[in-house]
Amino acid sequence: MWNFLVTTGSWPISGPDLPGFWPNSGPANGGEKTKAYVEMTKLTPADLAHFTGTAQWYRHGLNRRMLYTDGVQYLAEKGGAYWLLDKIACLQLEPKIGAEEFQVWRLHVMDDRSARLVCDDGNDNGTAIYSEDIDFTDFPLDQITSWVEGNVILLPSEH
Length: 159
Hints:
It is a single chain. The protein is an alpha+beta fold. 18% of the residues lie in helices and 27% in strands. It contains 4 helices and 9 strands. It has a 7-stranded mixed beta sheet with strand order 3-4-9-8-5-6-7. Strand 3 (58-59) and strand 4 form a beta hairpin. The longest helix is centred in the middle third of the chain and has 10 residues, at 82-91. It is globular, with a radius of gyration of 17 Å. The termini are far apart.
């Protein structure tokens, strides 16, 4: 049995309240696919490389000033990385970070599944604007780079 707790607003939701998260539910086991059910697929750097520009803009749900591209949406959906998108978008509200017109965000995943998230201004001076150690992630790639430019989160190939 899985042990987890999801917090929404000021009250927690646990197991039975979230159909689709239990191992024996979901479409593979005859269960109905719900919004809460997430199918993790193998994400590769090649999957992301074909995104050049965007056909649709997405508005971030928590920081409504932020938009993101098709490639970032694909990354969040297929890589289970909405948490990363939320982190980047919400940190734009920090004055030191939001003041930077251009930002380079790098997530490096270690062998023990810990990670380091670093943001810099894209110059080669090596000065980080923000960094955070993450105890655990199930992000499927060893590393990912995304950019923020003019309140838009995008993949470098989409520039």
